[in-house]
Amino acid sequence: MKLNERSLAFYATCDSPADNAGFLYKRGERHTAYHRRWFVLKGNMLFYFEERESREPVGVIVLEGCTVELCDSAEEFAFAIRFSGTKSRTYVLAAESQAAMESWVKSLSRASFDYMRLVVRELEKQLEEMRWGLAGGHPGCRHTPGCWKPQPSGPEQLPERLPALPTIPPKENGCAVWNNVPAADQLPDAGGCDGDANPRPLPLLPRRRASSGELGSTGAAAAESSSTFCRLHERYGREVARLRQDWLDRQRDHRP
Amino acid sequence: AVLKKRLVKLVVNFLFYFRTDEAEPIGALLLEHCRITKEEENVFSISFIEEPERKYCFECDSEEQCQEWIEALKRASYEFMRRSLIFYRNEIQKMTGKDPLEQYGISEEARFQLATRKQ
């Protein structure tokens, strides 16, 4: 499967701040030897480089539909990134200290786009309820989303306008899954609203569910993205192996 | 340029494209640091910051569909979501005096701090 690899490499190496970076040991796919690599987490992508100074990553792990868990290994401070689907590779990584391991497990398990989307939706709901005074419950209120104008504060760029809550039903062949929040013109019902306006708990993320088979509340979208990503993994893994071989060959050719 | 009919799926920050009769995608575009531009009627393009002259063009069935896709793709990046999150957090904090991320235990994460984001 083709990927816009240059864009990926650009994203990995451009000067936008990384969400986490450091050395980790990565267990090889076929052999159990661990190789020390420089890892950079940006958004939902975990890139790894041969060395810290390398100009291009040798690989990337797309962190969607995965679980991050500690694992039993002869190696200390080891953890695994697992994907659903039997054909998907499990990545076993090891940190150099307990603190580093904990930091990586935390940041990786919250790195997915799905997670961000959940948090953003929660905040969006909270903000909307506050603005329209629905915390106490006023069934008569109608509200239209998207009528807010974000006030730019400071040099940071903010979205040009807030994501509009959709009036169209979700389409498989079309709109971003991201747009598929429950329609805003439905008032939150009494069951959904905490009368005392306490923030409701973050919905359980799939990884916290007891059964590992179930993908959880994001339903079809999550199932779709994880099955597609399982395949994306495999494909990209093969491509990366080929790229790496090309890179190694080029290195050999350049040796005096 | 030849137009080929493709099934296109936007999944998180990737745009997958398929031959219409196949289950496996032929390819995918990572939608970070990209620009979505309206071209002529029914047509939009995606270009990337490191190669701005190269445009991936898509022709839609209608102007309406074209606009839908443009809007969806503009919001598709992880970076856009991050900015939205920071914006909402800020708004809620201004209104309530409390940081809404505290309850999730993520308020200290560097990726959500206003000051550290350059873009």
TrEMBL record, chain A:
One of its GO terms (biological process) is receptor recycling. Its main location: other. PANTHER family: SESQUIPEDALIAN, SESQUIPEDALIAN-1. Plays a role in endocytic trafficking. Required for receptor recycling from endosomes, both to the trans-Golgi network and the plasma membrane. It comes from Chauna torquata. Pfam families: PH. This is Sesquipedalian. InterPro entries: Boi1/Boi2-like (IPR045188), PH-like_dom_sf (IPR011993), PH_domain (IPR001849). The gene is Pheta1. Residues 188-227 are annotated as: Disordered. It comes from the Eukaryota. It is found in: Early endosome; Recycling endosome; Golgi apparatus, trans-Golgi network; Cytoplasmic vesicle, Clathrin-coated vesicle. Residues 212-227 have a biased composition (Low complexity). Residues 17-113 form the PH domain. Keywords: Cytoplasmic vesicle, Endosome, Golgi apparatus, Phosphoprotein. GO terms for cellular component: clathrin-coated vesicle; cytosol; early endosome; recycling endosome; trans-Golgi network.
From TrEMBL, chain B:
It comes from the Eukaryota. PROSITE patterns: PH_DOMAIN (PS50003). One of its GO terms (biological process) is endosome organization. GO terms for cellular component: cytosol; early endosome; recycling endosome; trans-Golgi network. Residues 1-78 form the PH domain. Gene3D superfamilies: Pleckstrin-homology domain (PH domain)/Phosphotyrosine-binding domain (PTB). PANTHER family: PLECKSTRIN HOMOLOGY DOMAIN-CONTAINING FAMILY J MEMBER 1, SESQUIPEDALIAN. This is Pleckstrin homology domain-containing family J member 1. The gene is Plekhj1.
